[in-house]
Design brief:
Keywords: Oxidoreductase. The protein has helices spanning 3-10, 25-35, 55-65, 68-72, 89-98, 104-121, 123-147, 160-167, 198-201, and strands at 47-52, 75-82, 151-155, 173-182. The chain is α+β, with helices and mostly antiparallel strands and 207 residues long. Helix 3 runs antiparallel to helix 8 and helix 5 (89-98) packs antiparallel against helix 6 (104-121). The structure holds flavin mononucleotide (FMN).
């Protein structure tokens, strides 16, 4: 089995974590350094990770969602999607211009095209883009975490309004999901859930 295959197969959504395990800033940074290779539309990198390690804040989040793994996790991470990521299109591409890879005309055209697409399609598209791009990033984050020896669980069982208030999340950001991270308490692991055979979720050349 390739390393990638075994990584994919070994990732599980942790049901609970071992209590009192700390994750350091440098361990988290190693994971983010891999997760940044996720693709994003126009390379706009819509995703922002808000990491909560502070025990008081973590307990406030636990109180608002009552999922025990929030309490036992080493950190709780809010995966946010920036609806207005397109506004940084020039900043993201100007380095390529300074390196001579993009001419000034190409840079200006990129800014005009990307801005035109997002503003032309409007707020609902901006919201979809925030969710779509942050979701792809989150999957890579979870695989990167597993590769570095950490277990995760993606979570939607929380009140986004309460989380927004506790963590003072600015209006332009969608709270796409929560990811808890820690060392899984293996005695609480559930059997892997049923997966549909390919024939039930793949079709070729039409539905
Ligand atoms: C968007 C999303 C939200 C989820 N929310 C929760 C949650 O709130 N609590 C929880 O315990 N698991 C949650 N899960 C985990 C799923 O239950 C889990 O991925 C699924 O049962 C498959 O198990 P596996 O990831 O171990 O293969 C969520 C998963 C996803 C993708």
């Amino acid at each position: 089995m390739s390393e990638f295959t075994s990584l994919v197969k070994s990732r599980r959504s942790a049901n609970n974590y071992m209590e009192g395990v700390e994750i350091t800033r440098s361990e988290l940074e190693e994971i983010f350094t891999l997760a940044k290779y996720a693709p994003s539309a126009f390379n706009l990198q819509h995703t922002h990770y808000l990491v909560v390690t502070d025990p008081v804040l973590k307990e406030k989040i636990y109180e608002s969602c009552k999922q025990y793994k929030v309490h036992s996790a080493s950190a709780v991470i809010l995966v946010l999607g920036n609806r207005y990521a397109y506004q940084a299109v020039e900043k993201i591409n100007e380095g390529m211009h300074h390196l001579g890879i993009l001419s000034k005309q190409e840079l200006d055209r990129t800014v005009e095209t990307v801005t035109g697409i997002y503003e032309g399609k409007g707020e609902s598209f901006m919201k979809e883009e925030a969710i779509r791009n942050a979701s792809l990033s989150a999957m890579l984050f979870m695989l990167s975490a597993k590769d570095k020896g950490w277990d995760t669980c993606p979570m939607i069982g929380f009140d986004p309004g309460a989380i927004k208030e506790i963590l003072e999340i600015p209006d332009g950001y969608e709270t796409v999901m929560m990811i808890t991270i820690g060392k899984e308490k293996l005695s609480s692991q559930r059997p892997r859930g049923y997966r549909k055979p390919n024939g039930e979720f793949v079709s070729y050349n039409g539905m």
